[in-house]
Amino acid sequence: MKNYRYLETMMHLFKGNVGSGIFALGDAFKHAGLLLAPPLTMFLGVICVHAQHILIKCNEEVTRRINDPNATTGFAGTVELCFATGPLSLRKYSVFMRKLVNIFLCITQLGFCCVYFVFIAKNMKLVMDVYGIEMDVHQHMAVILIPIMLSTWIRNLKYLVPVSSMANFLVIAGYVATMYIMCNDLPSIHERRYIADWHDLPLFFGTVIYSFEGITLVLPLKNEMKKPSNFSKPFGVLNVGMVIVGGMFVAMGFISYLKYGDAVAGSVTLNLESKEVMDGKIIIKHSSLPQCIQVAISLSILLTYALQFYVPIAIIWPKIVNRFGPFNWPVLSETIFRSTMCLLTCKFNI
């Protein structure tokens, strides 16, 4: 059943691309320089959107070839049909390519989920330490495992719309507040490197490409729209959404590096504490705004986990059912599987 309207799809696309990676862009810009990083970021964004359009066109073409306009093949299914209906010499690789793409998708999405645990735990540790509640990062991971696991029990993508909406609100509020703090007393751009060393560029590319993390949601979101044609139009969900996301990326990366220079952390939220130097000692000013930002952003990432988690579960679970099912209690069995996978993404960080 087609469920999503334009704005609902935009919210999912936005949240799929704006995650923990956006707050790492200051570190990325450090490895490219103030002058070189913005055009390179926009260039990578254009490549990313172009690749997503190619994926959509391939999907439309293969559904035309198989004479089934109502087919809703996903990422791996599209790759399989491209090989199956392509040159004769490549058709024998169609099933292998589908399996290979599925493996890469699962590794990528579950990797994002692992990073989310680290991101949330480190930010929450900073907040708790301020108020005298000192715990190890791994203990924070154990605490946040409970709400994250509960969120993974949501089995229908439609029911993630309110969760995605709340996450969008929190990440936008955190983004605006972070920019507000960083824009105070900005140093001169002459104090920063315009172009970094060339051997640092791979770190820039890796961080920025990680930040554009929503390509796996493109086909599922398009297929779930009431009017799928509105997804890839010139002013459709994909183009409009990615222009907004790209602008936010460039602004965050530029201001973060300009503000903190080479001291910018892997996540700029870790730089937000106000510091004063008195008698040669660094004194931390316990302003409540940085803590509010860290809590809001951590909560938004927590709510995003279920959306990133949806893709690998949608790939793996049907195969388990086909191999070992049908189960007497299918909902309970899937819930146990989801909980186990969530536990593994946490365990990989310990």
Given as residue ranges, the uncertain stretches (5+ residues, pLDDT < 50) are: 274-286
Placed side by side, the strands forming the largest sheet appear as 1-2
The helix/strand order is HHHHHHHHHHEEHH
Beta fraction:
under 5%
Largest sheet: 2 strands, antiparallel
- Give me the count of strands: 2
Note the overall shape: globular
- Alpha carbon gap, first and last residue: 41 Å
Q: What is the share of helical residues?
A: 55-70%
Compute the CA-based radius of gyration. 22 Å
Class by helix and strand content? mainly alpha
The number of helical segments is 12
Mean pLDDT: 83
In short:
The chain is 65% helix and 3% strand. It contains 12 helices and 2 strands, in the order ααααααααααββαα.
Structure description:
This protein has 350 residues and is mostly helical. It is built from twelve helices and two strands, in the order ααααααααααββαα. It has helices spanning 6-17, 25-30, 37-65, 75-84, 94-130, 137-151, 161-182, 201-211, 218-224, 237-260, 288-324, 330-347, and strands at 274-278, 281-285. A two-stranded antiparallel ribbon has the order 1-2. Strand 1 and strand 2 form a beta hairpin. Residues 274-286 have low confidence and may be disordered.
